[in-house]
Each structure stands twice: as C-alpha cells, then as structure tokens.
Automatic annotation (TrEMBL), chain A:
Keywords: Membrane, Transmembrane, Transmembrane helix. It comes from the Bacteria. InterPro entries: DUF485. This is DUF485 domain-containing protein. Pfam families: DUF485. Coiled coil: none annotated.
UniProtKB/TrEMBL annotation, chain B:
This is Cation acetate symporter. It comes from the Bacteria. One of its GO terms (biological process) is plasma membrane acetate transport. One of its GO terms (molecular function) is acetate transmembrane transporter activity. It is found in: Cell membrane. The chain crosses the membrane at residues 26-46, 67-90, 96-114, 141-172, 178-196, 208-226, 264-286, 298-323, 355-385, 406-425, 431-453, 465-485, 505-523. Its main location: membrane. GO terms for cellular component: plasma membrane. Keywords: Cell membrane, Membrane, Symport, Transmembrane, Transmembrane helix, Transport.
Amino acid sequence: MATETPPPAKHQLPSPVEFTEAQASAEFGELRRAHRSFAFPLTIAFIAWYLLYVLLSCYAGGFMGTEIAGNINVALVLGLAQFLTTFLIAWWYARHAAAKLDPRAEAIKSRMEGGA
Amino acid sequence: MISAQHTIAAQHTWLAAGEASEHRGLIISLFAVFVAATLVITVWAGRQTKDAADFYAGGRQFTGFQNGLAVSGDYMSAASFLGIAGAIALFGYDGFLYSIGFLVAWLVALLLVAEPLRNSGRYTMGDVLAYRMRQRPVRTAAGTSTIVVSIFYLLAQMAGAGVLVSLLLGITSDSGKIGIVALVGVLMIVYVTIGGMKGTTWVQMVKAVLLIAGAILLTFLVLLKFDFNVSDLLGSAADNSGKGKAFLEPGLKYGATGTSKLDFISLGIALVLGTAGLPHILIRFYTVPTAKAARKSVIWAIGLIGAFYLMTLALGFGAAALIKPAEIIASNKAGNTAAPLLALHLGGVDSNWGAILLASISAVAFATILAVVAGLTLASSSSFAHDIYANVIKKGQATEKQEINAARYATVGIGAVSIVLGALARDLNVAGLVALAFAVAASANLPTILYSLFWKRFTTSGALWSIYGGLVTAVGLVLFSPVVSGKPTSMFPDVDFHWFPLENPGIISIPVGFLLGAVGTLLSKEVPDAEKYAELEVRSLTGTGAH
C-alpha cells in the first residue's frame, strides 16, 4: 500500500466570502456547466435505455426470443449490449472528466488554496 | 445480495449424496487458511490504525486500483456469486437480468455521487447530507437510515451465510447453523474493531482477487468443455434444463403474471438506483486521497464487476448444461450451490481434482461473505460513532479517541445484534431484507444525496422529509407485502395482513422519496443557507479543502 506518501497537506478552508465569490465566478460556472451538461443527460439516457431493456424483457418475450446466430437470441445480445454501453459510458466519462473537468477544477482549487 | 428472490434461507437440503461431508476436511482447512491469513492482515492493519482517518477511511492512502478492487470485494456478495450462478442454472435468462441492474447502477455512482462525496465529506454519508443543513436533525436521520440499510443488508448476508456454509459443510442441525452465524459475527467484529477500515479494505481486496480468480478458472474450464463455442454451451444448457428454448428467453421466473412482471420492474428500479445510496459502498470513496482516485476506483470496479458478472453467465449456463437440474435442486432449492457443484463436476466427481476445486470454490464463497459483512458493520458503526455519537450526542465536542472508541463499541453492539437476528432469521425468507436494503437506499438516501449536491433551494426540512419519508414508505410497504405475510414463502406464512401486492416497494417508494424531498423543501419557510451551499458546491466540484 502507498502508505509512504505523506497525506495531502491540510489547508485552511477559504472564507465564506471567497466561496461565494468563487461560486459566482465565470470560471466555476463553466466547470459546473461542463459537469452537468454531460452527466445529467447521460444519466437520463442510460436509465431510459436500461428501463427499455427491462420492459422489453417483461413484455416483448417473442421479440427477445428471436434467434440471431445459433442459440444466441436478441435477449442475450441486448443484455450484453447493456454491459457494453456501461463500459463505454464509464470510459467516455473518464475521458470527458480528464479533458474538461480536471483542468478547470485544479485551476480553481489551486487559486483558492494558494490564497489561503 | 441476489438472495433477493432466491432465498438462500429456508432451504433444508444439502450438497447431494454427502459429497460435502467427504470433502469437509479439505473445505474446513481452506476456510481456516483464509481466516488465519485475514486475521494476520487485520492485526497488521490494526497496528497502523492511529487516528480517526485511519479507522474510518484507512488513512485515505489507497490507490484508485486498490480501492476499485476493495469496492468490488465489498459489492459482490456470496449471494451474487452463488445466487446469480444458481438463478441462471435454474431459470436461465431471467437469472441474468439481475447482474445487469447491479452493474448499470454503478454509472449513477460514477457520474453523480462518488467524486462530489469524496471532495466534500470526511467519513460518512451523513457528512455530505448534513453539510449545509442543521446538523443534529439531519445527522440523526442520516445515521438512522445508514444503520437501517446496513442492518437489513447484514442480516440477509448473515442468515444466508449460515445456511450456505452449512450447506457446503454438510451441517444440517440448527445448532450447527447458529454456530456458523455466530462464527461469522465474531470474525466480523474482530476485523472491524481491530483492523478498522484498513483491515477491512485489505480483506476485501484479497477476497476480490480470490473470487475473480475462482470465476476465471471455472469459466475457462466450462468453455473448454464446449470448445469455446458459446452457442453450443447455450444449446446444451437449454436441452439439459428440460425447458428448451424458453430457457434462453426472458420470462421463466418473472413472466408468470402481470404482478410478477411489475415486481420485476420494481426490483429493477431499486437495483439501478440503490447502489449509489448504499452507505457501505459510499464510505469506500473516502479511502483514496482525491476525487480523481475515487473516479478511478469506480471505473476499476465497473470493469471488475462487469467482467465477473459476464463470467457468472458461463458458470450458470455451464451448470445448467453439465448438471441435471434435479441434482442442483436436490442440493439447494434456490440453486445456491450450483457453482460449487459445477466445480465438483468440472474437476471430476470422483477425482481428487473435483474435491480440490469444490473446496476452493467453497472457501472463496466463505471469504466473500466475510468481506461483505465486515464492510457493512464498519459502515453502520462509523455512522453511529461519527454522526450520532460525536455530532448529535456530544454536539461535535468528542475527541477523536472517544469517537473511535464509540465506533468500536458500536461494532461489538451491531455485531451482537446481527448474530442474534441472523440466528433467528436463519430459516426466514431473506429476499425481503435485501430488496428492502436496496429500496431504502434508493428511496431515502439517493434523493437526499442528489438534492443536497445539486439543488440550491434544498433545505433541512426537505432532507428530513426525503430520508424519513423514503425510509418509512419503503419499510412500510414491505411490512404489508407478501414478503412478510400471506404466502407460504413469507416470514410469517401463517398470518395474512398483506395488502401491497409487490415484494419490492421501489416502484412506489423511490418516487415518493424524491417527491417528499421536493415538497418538504417547497413547503418550509426555511431560507436555505446560501453561503454553505456555495461552500459545498465549490468544494464538491473542485476538491478545495478536501480532507
């Protein structure tokens, strides 16, 4: 375990005024938008896609039983597709976060903690 | 956790034809090796546990990968190893439906919860919920719901553990089962009081490696039997199951009536929204130094858990293809011993390899149970000590030492309670308990977490309404559901006071939790604390001043 590395230095928390200013800043507004405009619609989308799959399993047995190749049917393919989309969304979010969220968050954090 | 619907409890059967007792010596030796190894780890971790951050959060020095392993170890219970494999072995495709809900649920944690929680909290879920609210009422509510969710989950694992281990060892007497429950309880108390989060994390990592290695081995052996032709494997499973093509289609378990379909939808919603509200999962994100590392943990967990659930497909269909359904059912009605039986058959029923494989897989199942119950105990005792004792009873004036001591006493208390309840519940239908844990987490915790983090207007009353409203609705509906009374599989089969038709309350209680949080906020005249929200929002997204 990486217990050798010292714990991150404890910073004095910036003042309420500093937080309120930071929250109102254009920079933070961009960070919030970059997070919400990605995470919120995507959450709605993957939950809808999951529910569609659950509903098809419950009410569209005939369609789900259609064979595609050998004994592999639509139900199995759609189930595996849920795995695939979950992996893809996780990868996509990691990329988005590294490119659009981390640099902005770092900038605000170091400015706020640097001043404290 | 899958024990939902395939009750591990209430089965009085044992591994077919005394196979278990022949291999008992080997199984017990492997159990003992695992217990000894984890105790060594625990004592070692205990020596390094000095302050509250060590006890509650393992010193926050685990890497994203290590924590991803531990999260997987915390999440994949014996029930999801044995339960899903068994459900697929008996009901084919319908068994697979669970694993999908359990996996997709992680995206909620990844996109909305893990990083903000890591950035703004210290030790418990209550830290984030109470951040900008009046501390005492919200901490009390958060502590209550943490303990309720964890105890129900714990109870299900304990009851399941007793029955499962008894099955694997061929113990059928009541006193034997109670003994197993007590042993599991004592071990989990030792892990948590001595090792704290550090010890628990290492136990969970070891377990995750063993579980995944066991699954890889069995999957490889199954696929080898079918020359890596998946279509052949599915075809043989369908033929051998006696159900034909229907075995590969949805509906064998849940397709019977309109109500059972609705119940499945309700369960599906609870599973997908419950994970990100499970306190024992949430506190794992405090064990890494930064939000980035928390993100990495979730991504590793999604990869590992996803891969594991894909392998359970091979295990389940492999068991269905290679073992007669009657033999699986004779061993355990719910199919919970399908994976160990598969190991025996793959190694050769009368060969030493079969015995060794069976013993190894049984030991993995035992390791799995211990790691999960330790995580649950830690979550509930942390919340008791940090939210209720330190912040409500002591009003924030407790020293770290007092707080850790309170957590240790709470662990012993919670452990003792679960041993007693687990022993009482050993023959009960545990389905309701697990479904309830997920439904309460999704109805009470998730709405409050999301509103706290993302809704500026949210207030103390809103938080109390959503936590207590979600909690009471979920627990209330289960109380009046067929889980508790009115059916042969109920906890109290001889009385009937059920009026709610579904076993899982999620489809009602989750929207109620979200709605009450909004209504409670809009109806209260309370002015939200804008400064505190600024602090929470900036901290949660940037990590400024993170612990």
